[in-house]
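input
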Amino acid sequence: MPFDPTRHEVVGVVDTPDAEPNTVAQVVSPGYGANGRQLRPAFVVVSKRQE
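output
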């Protein structure tokens, strides 16, 4: 899933050669919302491409 700053908070970054950059590699803690509002963001690890 692509990283969305309105729904996710980055807690780590990993080098992943076979994943698209700026995608969620791991959900550390799920977020939650109600009635279309984000009450707590999900804490995620985001992938980046090795250079």
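quick obs: The two ends are 22 Å apart (CA to CA).
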